[in-house]
């Protein structure tokens, strides 16, 4: 019975945790993964992120997508998958509004089977949590109202930190698909480089009665047993047995197992050591009597193992990237070309690459046997006149096309000349007018600055202040003059005055 493999997790925006997630997907042949808090969502056809980048769906074929803030949905293999994430820092009212929107998404994909996978940061005994908070009560009531059932089994923590653990990653399913879910479990034996653990489960392609739940029985083409070639059938069965024997005998390299391009045996060993260090730490925490010093030492060992694994993944990716760039000069049409064109096999090399030459020859001979006495039909010879006629037609078409291009260029040149002829005189006239207006404006501005006032007949006394003398004159004349109105005051020339005139002017100022 065919099964679809699902993976659920939260990687806390960590780049290395996302790298390790992709390796786990390759190793376990995961069909669909829901990732909360991804490091980033690449622009690829098998990635689908929400509106704010808080959750993403990774799958082979994702159709009918929809997204919002904190949720993303798509259909894969006839199952609607909804990925969710809700921050613990938001209020309960915001969470209720989020669930209302999420309920509309679930109803949109009805009557398809629906899976709702995500981190809601809600605790409830309905999915194994030892305590139930207000957000968990709201989520539990929402699931019942929407018609979803909880897939969580047991009380294994999905989020483990130094202070303790919690169960906040929840899997919901509609009744039509819940009965097909197999082996739901928390992958506690795997290191994720995150404080959240992976959740894995399988969904069978058929129900218990043996019928596909969504696709009707297809009464399409069938094998015509009366026309079967028994000799070819026996040869094909023999070839299949050879393939299985070759795989059992180790003819296919074990290193060809599914993996990402940067995965190495050293990284696999470091991950095993990291898991062992975490087990020692978690086992010690289960004791009733614990020594804080020893507990801290075990945690430091676990933390150092995670850091070593984190650095090893980064170094391996850098080396693989440099190797890929270096291969551009050696083989530009090899792996770099296949990678850019999307033809690079991400999991394993072709099966025939690991076969021995003798076995490969036997397989090809069995699949494509030589038939004696068969003469292929002679192909009709091409008539020379037809070829010449075709060449002539192509040449005439090319000449006609070039003629049209030349005519188009002539018309464009004529239009440009007409535009230039009509615009140039008008443009010159406008430039002359602007120059004249600028000149007039400049002259008027200079005239407006000529506000000089000359006062004559004032006797000059040694050491007097011209500005103060001007202020006295304004007061006597009844003129209001502000200090800011006076820019500069100076004596132009000394005029000799008679004694009577000097006395009269002095009396005026007094």
Topology of this protein?
Blueprint: E1 3-10, H1 15-28, E2 32-36, E3 47-49, E4 55-59, E5 63-68, E6 71-76, E7 79-85, H2 92-108, E8 114-119, H3 134-146, E9 149-150, E10 159-161, E11 164-166, E12 169-173, H4 175-178, E13 181-187, E14 198-204, H5 230-248, H6 265-285, H7 292-330, H8 335-340, H9 357-367, H10 384-448, H11 466-477, H12 499-509
Parallel strand pairs: 1-2, 7-8
Antiparallel strand pairs: 1-14, 2-4, 3-4, 5-6, 6-7, 8-12, 9-12, 10-11, 13-14
Helix pairs in contact: 2-3, 5-9, 6-7
Domain Endonuclease/exonuclease/phosphatase: 81-199
GO molecular function: catalytic activity
Keywords: Coiled coil
Overview in brief:
The protein is an alpha+beta fold. It is built from twelve helices and 14 strands. A hairpin with a 2-residue loop joins strand 10 and strand 11.
Q: Which labels suit this protein?
A:
4 domains, six-stranded mixed sheet, 14% strand, coiled coil
List the helices and strands in order: EHEEEEEEHEHEEEEHEEHHHHHHHH
Number of helices: 12
Uncertain regions: pLDDT < 50 for 5+ in a row? 212-220, 248-257
Count of β-strands = 14
Q: Class of the largest domain in CATH? A: Alpha Beta
Helix content: 40-55%
Global mean pLDDT: 79
Strand composition percent: 5-15%
Strand order of the largest sheet: 3-4-2-1-14-13
CATH topology of the largest domain: Deoxyribonuclease I, Chain A
Structural class: alpha+beta
**Rg (C-alpha, Å):** 44 Å
Gross morphology is extended
Please give the largest β-sheet. Answer: 6 strands, mixed
- Domains counted in the coordinates: how many? 4
CATH homologous superfamily identity of the largest domain: Endonuclease/exonuclease/phosphatase
Based on the coordinates given, report the CATH architecture of the largest domain. 4-Layer Sandwich
Distance between the termini: 123 Å
């Amino acid at each position: 019975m065919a099964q679809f493999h699902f993976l659920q997790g939260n990687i806390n925006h960590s780049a290395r945790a996302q790298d390790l997630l992709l390796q786990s997907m390759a190793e376990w042949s995961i069909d669909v993964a829901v990732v909360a808090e991804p490091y980033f969502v690449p622009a690829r056809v098998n990635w689908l992120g929400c509106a704010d980048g808080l959750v993403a769906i990774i799958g082979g074929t994702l159709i009918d997508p929809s997204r919002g803030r904190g949720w993303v949905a798509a259909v894969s293999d006839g199952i609607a998958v909804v990925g969710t994430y809700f921050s613990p820092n938001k209020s309960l009212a915001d969470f209720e509004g989020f669930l209302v929107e999420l309920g509309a998404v679930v109803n949109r994909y009805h009557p398809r089977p629906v899976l709702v996978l995500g981190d809601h940061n809600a605790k409830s005994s309905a999915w194994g949590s030892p305590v139930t908070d207000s957000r968990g009560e709201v989520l539990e009531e929402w699931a019942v109202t929407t018609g979803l059932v909880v897939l969580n089994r047991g009380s294994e923590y999905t989020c483990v930190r130094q202070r303790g653990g919690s169960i906040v990653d929840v899997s919901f399913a509609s009744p039509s698909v819940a009965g097909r879910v197999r082996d739901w479990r928390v992958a506690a034996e795997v290191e994720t480089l995150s404080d959240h653990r992976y959740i894995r489960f399988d969904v069978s392609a058929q129900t218990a009665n043996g019928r596909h739940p969504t696709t009707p029985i297809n009464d399409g083409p069938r094998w015509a047993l009366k026309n079967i070639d028994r000799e070819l059938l026996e040869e094909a069965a023999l070839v299949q047995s050879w393939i299985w024997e070759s795989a059992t005998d180790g003819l296919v390299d074990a290193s060809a197992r599914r993996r990402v391009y940067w995965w190495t045996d050293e990284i696999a060993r470091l991950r095993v050591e990291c898991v062992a260090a975490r087990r020692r730490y978690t086992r010690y925490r289960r004791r009733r009597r614990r020594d804080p010093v020893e507990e801290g030492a075990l945690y430091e060992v676990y933390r150092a193992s995670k850091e070593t694994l984190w650095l090893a993944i980064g170094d391996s990716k850098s080396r693989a990237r440099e190797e890929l760039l270096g291969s551009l000069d050696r083989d530009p049409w090899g792996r770099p070309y296949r990678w850019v064109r999307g033809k690079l096999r991400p999991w394993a090399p072709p099966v025939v690459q690991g076969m021995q030459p003798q076995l490969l020859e036997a397989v090809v001979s069995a699949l494509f046997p030589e038939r004696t006495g068969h003469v292929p039909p002679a192909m009709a010879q091409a008539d020379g006149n037809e070829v010449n006629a075709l060449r002539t037609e192509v040449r005439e078409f090319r000449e006609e096309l070039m003629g049209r291009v030349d005519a188009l260029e002539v018309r464009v040149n004529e239009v440009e000349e007409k535009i230039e002829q009509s615009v140039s005189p008008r443009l010159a006239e406008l430039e002359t007018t602007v120059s004249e207006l600028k000149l007039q404006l400049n002259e008027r501005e200079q005239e407006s600055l000529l506000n000089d006032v000359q006062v004559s007949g004032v006797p000059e006394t040694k050491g007097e202040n011209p500005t103060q003398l001007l202020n006295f004159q304004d007061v006597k004349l009844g003129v209001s003059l502000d200090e800011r109105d006076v820019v500069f005051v100076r004596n132009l020339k000394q005029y000799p005055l008679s004694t009577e005139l000097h006395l009269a002017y002095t009396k005026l100022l007094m």
